[in-house]
């Protein structure tokens, strides 16, 4: 198991990677519309998921963002001697923490939740 300081370092770096990726994705009006409509949400594994039925256009948006996220995670994990999975999990923890009320996220039990003013339910492994 990783030490808390290593998890904290990965969390900080993951946040930087997600901020850059999120800023790029939010320039896409289709992404912003899907996110605000609750059609997509953040997942504990660090990737976007589709809430409910997927259509081809929505699937392309999610796939494109997830491919870009995976590339960032792989690069940052390698730079920090971490596994891709550990880096992605930490990124997912950060992404879920940054959701705003009304946005969707996947809880540790696999259910989709709508963020309220309360803190989101996060994976117990989150730093």
Plain-language structure description:
With 127 residues, this protein is α+β, with helices and mostly antiparallel strands. It has one domain. It has helices at 4-26, 29-36, 56-79, 84-97; strands at residues 40-42, 48-50, 104-106, 112-114. The chain has a four-stranded mixed beta sheet. Strand 3 (104-106) and strand 4 form a beta hairpin. Helix 1 (4-26) runs antiparallel to helix 3, helix 1 packs across helix 4 (84-97) and helix 3 crosses helix 4 (84-97). The two termini are 12 Å apart.
List the helices and strands and how they pair.
Layout: H1 4-26, H2 29-36, E1 40-42, E2 48-50, H3 56-79, H4 84-97, E3 104-106, E4 112-114
Parallel strand pairs: 1-3
Antiparallel strand pairs: 1-2, 3-4
Using only C-alpha atoms, the radius of gyration works out to 14 Å
Sheet with the most strands: spatial strand order: 2-1-3-4
What's the quaternary structure here? single chain
N-to-C SSE series?
A: HHEEHHEE
The N- to C-terminal Cα distance equals: 12 Å
What's the gist of this structure?
The chain is α+β, with helices and mostly antiparallel strands and 127 residues long.
Entry keywords:
127 residues, alpha+beta, 4 strands, 9% strand, disordered N terminus
């Amino acid at each position: 198991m990783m030490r808390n300081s290593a998890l904290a370092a990965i969390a900080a770096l993951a946040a930087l990677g997600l901020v850059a990726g999120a800023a790029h994705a939010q320039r896409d009006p289709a992404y912003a519309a899907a996110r605000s409509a609750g059609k997509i949400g953040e997942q504990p594994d660090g990737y976007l998921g589709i809430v409910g039925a997927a259509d081809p256009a929505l699937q392309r948006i999610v796939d494109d963002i997830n491919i870009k996220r995976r590339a960032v995670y792989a690069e940052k994990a390698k730079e920090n001697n971490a596994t891709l999975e550990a880096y992605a999990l930490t990124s997912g923890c950060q992404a879920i923490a940054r959701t705003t009320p009304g946005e969707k996220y996947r809880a540790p039990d696999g259910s989709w939740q709508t963020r309220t003013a309360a803190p989101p339910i996060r994976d117990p492994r989150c730093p």
